[in-house]
Design a protein that fits this description.
Elements: E1 9-14, E2 31-34, E3 40-45, E4 48-61, E5 64-75
Parallel strand pairs: 1-5
Antiparallel strand pairs: 1-2, 3-4, 4-5
Length: about 80
């Protein structure tokens, strides 16, 4: 269980098996807290940004149903 800051939403991240996503493979299956869940958002780490896009899937985390976002592209 995590304590969210006001206005943050919790989402599940998924990273495709494609080798172009190897730099962010460790994010697969993790949860992120984002300010406003829309249809996509950008994750920035070590000068590389990754665009995550919403899927039609959800996962259960305790009593909460969380949206799943999948990495769509890497922006160097």
């Amino acid at each position: 269980m995590s304590i969210l800051q006001p206005g943050l939403k919790r989402v599940r991240l998924r990273v495709p098996a494609d080798s172009s996503f190897d730099a962010v493979r460790d994010l697969d299956g993790t949860f992120a807290e984002v300010p406003d869940v829309r249809d996509k958002y950008r994750y920035l780490r070590d000068g590389v940004s990754v665009d995550f896009e919403a899927t039609d899937e959800t996962v259960l985390d305790g009593d909460a149903s969380l949206p799943v976002f999948e990495a769509a592209r890497i922006n160097a």
